[in-house]
Specification:
heterodimer, A: mainly alpha, MetI-like fold, 2 domains, 26 helices, 2 strands, B: alpha/beta, Rossmann fold, OB fold (Dihydrolipoamide Acetyltransferase, E2P), 6-stranded mixed β-sheet, 5-stranded mixed β-sheet, globular
Chain lengths: 540, 351
């Protein structure tokens, strides 16, 4: 077909470009490296691995309990405020782990906010010894968990929503108690969604840099950063990334194998039967309300309150902040990256839709693995590739070095964001695309419209709400993103995230509060805009 | 030189590498003719329509429309350049457009469209009250009528309808069938209809094609397909009678051990003395209470205007007999049921 080749070719090229950083990490395995590897093996390597594993285990456990617990309460029970908690419990997502970490420390540290509160309530006293300290590993686990448990909550809630009503009634018929039904029927049936949520949590945890760096926890991610910055060993940095990636992929394979051919819930033909929620009374109602309120408070009100408190107490920081410049920089990055991501994701999806090619489908599947690549690994892999390309290909043709164009530039940042968030954008559009029957395209062809015209006249109008959703989702991720921005940004180019990080790393938590507050409020606004979509029955 | 409106010659119809129908040939001679393709589910009827529309490629044979090759091993005119319209069986309406916008979608593209007046078709198919609604707000039957309207108003050279009335309520179906035939004939719209409903096909079609076992088994006028099926497989597919053993005893006669002498005109020539299988359709036998040929009733189906009695012969064969439902009396199961003798069947279909 005449226009097929253009779409096929474009999709093919996009997929290949996005795969490059992943390939760079994998090829590093075969390259020689400096003595740093030996030094590390004899010293901290096992500590790094142990810390990463402990962090992962802690965060997975906590997010499972919070995410599934809250989803269960708001999905199956009626109690005061349930409709408010349904969406407010996702607001924690607006607070990145590193900002949560600043708040946690600021509140509980010696002579911190907690101390001030106690002092103003009860007068002078030796409160520092009474106030618990949430730093180190515990602090990192809490910060990351409260920031990203929403992944588990959103997906599990959607799964509970779709769960066949018969399944719940089956439990009642079998004489199961509520707890027995929860553990024997409801949770096993929602397993794919829970595991999908936990997988996202695992990826985010392993790739977290801001919070673990703040609490001085040495994990594989910080090791990657150190091997590159302190020892100038890009190859070993990539090799560490390789091991981390293998670990992440192993998690997915294990989960897939464990599922075998088991089938789980599916939407019932003829629509979803609205579940009759169980109305809670008395102490049970108070308990459910308290649990949800506590999680909402800890995940959102607490960090925002802390940032707001500092901003009010130290207004000078507010006026010192170059707000306009930070806003322009953030808007610039968000708009350039979103446009690039949405346009290319569209091309790739449409190419796949009309090409019916298994090769292209495989390539696209691989290309979206960029999201599994922690930001820090991606940044390092990107620099490695550009350096290699510059030193071999560009050098061979004796052209002027391209390093300055692609590293430490807006373009470089946009490319790295593109690779990192390509799966988010591509899958976001894909899930909506898949709901559009292919005979709709064919009807358009038969009405006399070419493939390109069908794309503009049928697909774009159909997907406009998905485009908006994807745009907001990408914006949210870019605003929160830290390591890529930190490593690849141009000199003197700051965003809210990097400004907060820089102040915090200089122990100026009060000053970090202002950019953090702006970041969180912007992210909250974005989440509120898309909350209806996230929580709708269409989302899974 | 071929003057056929549509010519399909030795075509293999396939999806990817899976050949569904092999070496198929048939023609639509005149503009405005209606052809119905009948066959069991999954046999490849939809694949044939999709290939004619250009949505699937063929790797053998030629498809010509108005003497121009539109599909062959080397040529594949793009669907948008064929001026062929296909109404899909499943809902293929644009979900983000209203019913009205869906209907006018095809019309908008063809600026010099001198086809049917959409308002007229909307009125005939009774969908005027749906125009402002979105596809998800209407029923499957209504969506099918909208889809049919969209295809009709685009003024195609060839209209392809894939099970166009499958989702429409039974009580409304006949009315739509009549209206559809009126529109197609009045405006001379050449049409190929795919259906599994033989009654629908016999009513709408000028010619019927029976597709079985990956082949076009019979392509003929509906009357001939019904009364003179050309193979046992077509008989079995149409499921309108039973095959009983008989011996040819003369130029116009044969003999069955249970029914005795049967007279009629052979559709095909058979040698006197040869053993054959005779097709007995419910309309072939007449009821007569006074006859000495009495068989046991084993089943009775009420069809509204008629009863179909299933009778057991002495050799344990089951045969069906049609009786008008206003017949003076009814027979019950296990009753004796008389068959008028001598038996005379207009078309003696033997294999």
């Amino acid at each position: 077909m005449k226009s097929l080749n253009i779409w096929y070719f474009s999709s093919f090229i996009i997929s290949i470009l996005v795969i490059i950083p992943v390939l760079t990490v994998f090829t590093s395995f075969f390259q020689s490296t400096s003595d740093y590897i030996e030094l590390l093996q004899n010293t901290f390597l096992y500590d790094y691995i142990y810390n990463s594993a402990a962090l992962l285990l802690g965060v997975l456990s906590l997010t499972f309990i919070i995410g599934v617990g809250c989803a269960y309460l708001v999905s199956f029970y009626k109690f005061p405020g349930v409709n408010f908690f349904k969406w407010s419990l996702i607001l924690g997502f607006a607070v990145p782990p590193y900002i949560y970490a600043y708040s946690l420390t600021a509140f509980f540290e010696n002579y911190g906010t907690a101390y001030t509160l106690l002092k103003s309530l009860f007068g002078e006293g030796n409160y520092n010894s009474l106030i618990p300290k949430f730093d180190g590993m515990i602090g990192a686990i809490l910060s990351i968990s409260f920031s990203i448990y929403a992944y588990v909550y959103i997906l599990t809630r959607a799964s509970f929503y779709f769960q066949s009503h018969n399944l719940i009634e089956l439990g009642k018929n079998l004489g199961f108690s509520k707890m027995k039904s929860l553990f024997n029927i409801i949770i096993p049936s929602a397993r794919p969604a829970i595991v999908a949520g936990l997988s996202l949590v695992a990826m985010e945890t392993l790739s977290d840099f801001g919070a673990v760096d703040f609490f001085s926890i040495n994990t594989l991610t910080t090791a990657i950063y150190n091997s590159w910055l302190s020892f100038d060993d890009l190859v070993f940095s990539n090799q560490l990334s390789f091991y981390l990636l293998i670990f992440i992929f192993a998690l997915f394979i294990l989960e897939n194998l464990s599922r075998k051919n088991a089938k789980y819930h599916s939407p019932i033909q003829g629509g979803i039967k609205v579940k009759q929620k169980i109305k809670l009374k008395g102490i049970n109602s108070l308990f459910a309300f308290s649990i949800c309120f506590l999680i909402f408070f800890l995940s959102f009100i607490f960090p925002v309150g802390q940032m707001l408190y500092w901003t009010i107490i130290y207004p000078k920081n507010l006026f010192d902040l170059n707000f306009i410049s930070l806003l322009i920089n953030t808007v610039l990055l968000v708009s350039l990256s979103s446009v690039a991501l949405i346009v290319f994701s569209f091309i790739s999806n449409y190419g796949n839709r009309i090409a019916k090619s298994k090769t292209l489908n495989f390539l696209t599947t691989i290309s979206i693995s960029g999201y599994a690549l922690p930001g820090i690994i991606l940044a390092v892999a990107y620099i490695t590739f550009v350096a290699w390309f510059d030193e071999t290909i560009i050098n061979f043709f004796e052209i002027k070095s391209i390093k300055k164009i692609f590293i430490g530039s807006i373009l470089g940042l946009v490319i790295a964001y593109f690779v990192r968030f390509y799966s988010l954008s591509c899958n976001g559009l894909k899930s909506s695309y898949e709901k559009l029957n292919k005979s709709v395209d064919e009807s358009s062809y038969l009405a006399g419209y070419s493939k390109s015209k069908t794309f503009f006249k049928v697909h774009i109008p159909y997907l406009k709400s998905s485009i908006f959703f994807v745009f907001i989702l990408i914006s949210l991720e870019i605003i929160r993103e830290l390591p890529i921005t930190l490593i690849l940004r141009p000199f003197n180019f700051e965003t809210f995230a990097t400004t907060a990080y820089i102040y915090a790393s200089q122990d100026l938590l009060e000053a970090a509060a202002v950019p953090s507050l702006f970041l969180v409020l912007t992210a909250t606004l974005f989440i509120l805009i898309i909350s209806r979509y996230i929580l709708s029955e269409n989302y899974e | 030189m071929s003057r056929n409106f549509l010519e399909i010659k030795n075509v293999n119809f396939k999806i990817d590498e899976d050949i569904k129908v092999r070496n198929m040939s048939f023609n639509i001679e005149k503009k405005g003719d209606i052809v119905c393709l009948l066959g069991p589910s999954g046999i490849g009827k939809t694949t044939i329509l999709r290939s004619i529309a250009g949505l699937e490629q063929i790797n053998k044979g030629i498809i010509k429309l108005k003497s121009k090759i539109i599909s062959s091993e080397k040529i594949n005119v793009e669907p948008e350049d064929r001026n062929i319209s296909l109404a899909f069986q499943e809902n293929s309406l644009f979900p983000h457009y209203t019913v009205e916008k869906n209907i006018y979608f095809g019309v908008e593209k063809k600026k010099n469209n001198r086809g049917l007046d959409p308002r007229k078709i909307i009125k005939i198919l009774n969908i005027g009250n749906l125009l402002t609604k979105y596809p998800h707000e209407i029923s499957a039957g209504e969506a099918q009528r909208v889809s049919l309207t969209r295809s009709l108003v685009s003024n195609p050279d060839l209209l392809l309808l894939d099970e166009p009335l499958s989702n429409i309520d039974e009580n409304f179906k006949e009315e739509i069938q009549i209206k559809l035939k009126q529109i197609l004939k009045q405006h001379r719209i050449t049409t190929i209809i795919v259906t599994h409903d033989s009654n629908e096909a016999f009513y709408l079609a000028d010619k019927c094609g029976i597709i079985l076992d990956g082949k076009l088994k019979q392509f003929d006028e509906p009357y001939n397909v019904y009364h003179s099926p050309n193979s046992i497989s077509v008989v079995k597919f149409l499921n309108r009678g039973v095959l009983v053993p008989a011996k040819v005893t003369g130029e116009f006669t044969l003999e069955n051990e249970d029914l005795g002498l049967i007279k009629g005109n052979f559709v095909n020539i058979h040698k006197v003395g040869s053993e054959v299988k005779l097709l007995l359709q419910p309309e072939d036998l007449e009821h007569d209470d006074t006859s000495n040929l009495q068989l046991e009733v084993v089943d009775k189906k009420f069809k509204g205007s008629s009863f179909i009695y299933t009778l057991k012969t002495n050799s344990q064969k089951l045969i069906s007999v049609f009786v008008h439902s206003h017949h003076i009396h009814q027979h019950q199961i296990k009753d004796r049921f008389g068959i008028k003798k001598p038996i005379h069947i207009k078309h003696l279909v033997c294999f």
